[in-house]
Amino acid sequence: MQSYMNNIQKNNTFFELLHSEDRIRLGIIRNWLGQSLETPAFIPVATNASIRALDSISVKNLGINGIFVNTYHMHLSPGEEVVSELGGLHKFMNYEGVIFTDSGGFQAFSLGQAIIDGVGKIASVFSKEGKRRNKDQQKLAEITDDYIVFKSHIDGRIIKLTPEMSIQIQQKLGSDIMMVLDECTSPLASYEYCKNSMERSCRWALKCYNFFKENNIPNQYLYGIIQGGHYYDLRMKSTEFICSLDFDGIAVGGSLGTSKENIAEILSWIVDYLPQDKPRHLLGIGSIPEIFVAIEHGMDTFDCIIPTRYARTGTVFVLDSPNFVRDITSKYYKNKESKRYDLPIDENCQCYTCRNYSVSYLNHLFYVGEICVMTLLTIHNLHFYNTLLKNIRKSIKENKYFEFKQLFLNRMIEKLE
Amino acid sequence: MQSYMNNIQKNNTFFELLHSEDRIRLGIIRNWLGQSLETPAFIPVATNASIRALDSISVKNLGINGIFVNTYHMHLSPGEEVVSELGGLHKFMNYEGVIFTDSGGFQAFSLGQAIIDGVGKIASVFSKEGKRRNKDQQKLAEITDDYIVFKSHIDGRIIKLTPEMSIQIQQKLGSDIMMVLDECTSPLASYEYCKNSMERSCRWALKCYNFFKENNIPNQYLYGIIQGGHYYDLRMKSTEFICSLDFDGIAVGGSLGTSKENIAEILSWIVDYLPQDKPRHLLGIGSIPEIFVAIEHGMDTFDCIIPTRYARTGTVFVLDSPNFVRDITSKYYKNKESKRYDLPIDENCQCYTCRNYSVSYLNHLFYVGEICVMTLLTIHNLHFYNTLLKNIRKSIKENKYFEFKQLFLNRMIEKLE
Questions:
Q1: Are B303 and B281 spatial neighbours (Cβ–Cβ below 8 Å)?
Q2: What values do phi and psi take at A135, rounded to 5?
Q3: From A3-7, A81-85, A129-133, the region with the lowest mean pLDDT
Q4: What residue ranges do the domains of chain A occupy?
Q5: Residue B315 forms beta bridges with which residues?
Q6: pLDDT tens per residue across span A268-323
Q7: ipTM of the prediction
Q8: pTM (two decimals)
Q9: Does A57 touch chain B (CB under 8 A)?
Q10: Is A244 helix (H, G, I), strand (E, B) or coil?
Q11: Which residues in chain B have their CB less than 8 angstroms from residue A85's CB?
Q12: Which of B86, B356, B376 sits opposite A360 (nearest CB)?
């Protein structure tokens, strides 16, 4: 009955699956405003309702049709009431595209156990130092069976977050896609911890689901989240439970191990049990190799800070370098010692930055601390990711995905258009 | 002979005086690339070959046709050789407009006596604390009769700057308008100090002039600088000497006192002795009232960090507020306590920021430290300054300057178009 009510209030074409073969999917997500997002798509992170160093119109002009906003951060500033008064996130930030919000649960990890363990999704995968425990650090989040308690990283005030509150906040934020409250476990967490946490996340998912259905929330869609760390039986139980509820989409979260092989393994356990007709989001992924893994395991969208954070440290994505990155802050790029100094980051790249500025100039701006370089490099990196995904979608359409992947990963693609 | 050589190599229409009445002038400056700048014009400061928080194309798109680059900073990074290898400042920063460079002399003050005196051009005029001596601070610049010695604020290396070197560096930077090496005196400097300094600045101006003429530098123009602090006889002697040489333009520098009345007085001493057919630049000015003073005293261009620096602290220019500024970082602008929260900074403003974002959103971005707000506010402030100057030029053309000024300063103008 409730489900029927929801269906007629909602756009029936929230997700359209256009193609599916060998687990690889093509689809379209549409929000109630009629704005659409072709999948598979990379969703950049706009923590504070702003992709760092870029304004919303510039983001849209890059062809980016989906972004990922952090509920916990928005709750702290400006608060969901302010966003709601201003007409919700779309109006508040003036962004015309599909807006995802997380639940705040990830911060229970990133401000909690991650501080103690000295890990984070990014840290655990990319840190050269590897994992390190750091017991002197103080947690800013604690988890109980009924809620998460945060100590605000802005003003120190104490915030309790229940599953129902998380949905209420996301409802006021007016995102298109909401997530249930869950806990993202540390890659160092024991089986016992992950089991308890997964069971709690399932209970919280049900609470969120019920609250969402009872309140008949229109124009917004809710994803359940599969947890269970890197333990087969936990992932399977979580998958079974989450898929038993009529969520609008399914997300996969939590620790996915420390390599793309780990991610592939975990996704391969569960992918064939996910409903075909619902969109699937992989949380906090990823690097370029991880994106291929996600797509081959049936994921439709994935969010990550990599392209934007890398940009702010001077690391740019290029086609012709190992790991597809180049650090343009090196003195080498300053002058004619480098053959590239008077060329753009990538001669074949059609982004605003590459059409207008040389590596030497960008190197100089970085050296002297001019913040406009962060904007310019963010534009380049997001253009790279977005164009890569466009090329991947095209290759899927043309039944040439594996061919494209082979050429791309072997650096035999000269140009992404 | 040399002068003749120079004339034929150069664009004869470097400066065209279109109109002059009651000392108020209208003109056009054209560089050798054919890029033109209508005067009177405000010239924003691009210290490191970048207007802070904006890239060059965005600057040009704002209709800004002249910028002011600091030679000392460019000498430190990336160095004039690198800029020269890349084809000069226009190519290096990809800016199509008239580029001014200073001589490095201002940094002899700002990194020298200004540190000891706790003053600067901005500090002395705007600081609420007023002037304060700060003897514990260490100078990073010392001046001798023959050169300035700097200790680099980046890496501590020692740099000697002679008049000839300053011209050589500016030549390699490839700016359109170069300045002679001078000393900008502190507003606290004694008559004796100002006299010696002015005489040295005159000797240096001659050295720069001779070096410039002997080296037959094409496509670039050199301005002499009038110094002399707030002392009548020193300003007159400096004016006489600088105007006796065939510079391409005349700049007025140094301490101009602490109020717009002081500036008016100093300019009124000298303006009628300046050659009519040469462009005149007022260094380091200014606030909005100062701009009117400058224009009424025959100045054509003036550079200042005010609109850009104010933007980065959250202070925006508006038509309906005392001093024409509003601090949008106040909590008041966060939500509906303020009537303005869901409106742009200025409803009548046509800038990119006002067309797209509300005060509440900008306030939020500032509060959470998202750097894109600096870009957005810089766009607004530069649009305000640039549109104001456009309106002033129009009023001069239509013989309505004083009428416009009266309405504007009494906040009776609702819209700048």
A1: yes
A2: -75, -15
A3: A3-7
A4: 2-304, 314-409
A5: B327
A6: 999 999 999 999 999 999 999 999 999 999 999 999 999 999 999 999 999 999 89
A7: 0.93
A8: 0.93
A9: yes
A10: helix
A11: 335-336, 341-342
A12: B86
